[in-house]
Amino acid sequence: MPALMPTEYTARVTWIGVVGNRDAALASSALKSVQALFDGPVGESHGGLTRPSCSRVLKQHPRNTEIRNVRQFSIISAEELAEIAHRMELAELDPSLLGATLVVKGIPDFTRVPPSSRLQGPDGVTLTVDMENRPCTLPARVIEDAMPGYGKRFKPASLGRRGVTAWVEREGTISVGDEMRLHIPDQPVWSCLGKARRGKTDLAETT
């Protein structure tokens, strides 16, 4: 029995970028297409099969432990990017300031797609969603440099709208204008999810 289910939802790629040197700058440079290899997007400083662990996984690994890199791609939806801009009181927000790899359009509530979902492109290139990309202060600094006074607005405005991180399951090329189909795990939501979150309301039960 197949473990993944193709859905009717597709995401059109509207923007592509790579961060050439994250030590020099977080902002990404726009491209028309990018090769997605097993170690990530070609030219992306956040690529690699492994990465040093960071603050996001300190409860699992000491900082700078070598772990599998499931954050090769940073993907945000055009709809949620527009909502972030609106909440920041901006007409628009350049995705390059967020260090984004892909901006996609067409999948509602994109940040909350199930972990382990796949986005598959026309040539078979497949990205596996790791999980929600939580807001952090790094893009805020880039935004502040570009638009003084707005950086501090980013983190609260992007909560629950920051998109997802992903890694390459199948190599291929992704181009602006491509349609990527969403495939989701064919399993129910874990019945103990709410309890495991220490009594927090299960989001799956309220949406």
TrEMBL record:
<dbReference type="InterPro" id="IPR005302">
    <property type="entry name" value="MoCF_Sase_C"/>
</dbReference>
<dbReference type="GO" id="GO:0030151">
    <property type="term" value="F:molybdenum ion binding"/>
</dbReference>
<dbReference type="GO" id="GO:0030170">
    <property type="term" value="F:pyridoxal phosphate binding"/>
</dbReference>
<protein>
    <submittedName>
        <fullName>MOSC domain-containing protein</fullName>
    </submittedName>
</protein>
<dbReference type="Pfam" id="PF03473">
    <property type="entry name" value="MOSC"/>
</dbReference>
<feature type="domain" description="MOSC">
    <location>
        <begin position="24"/>
        <end position="183"/>
    </location>
</feature>
<dbReference type="InterPro" id="IPR052716">
    <property type="entry name" value="MOSC_domain"/>
</dbReference>
<dbReference type="GO" id="GO:0003824">
    <property type="term" value="F:catalytic activity"/>
</dbReference>
<dbReference type="InterPro" id="IPR011037">
    <property type="entry name" value="Pyrv_Knase-like_insert_dom_sf"/>
</dbReference>
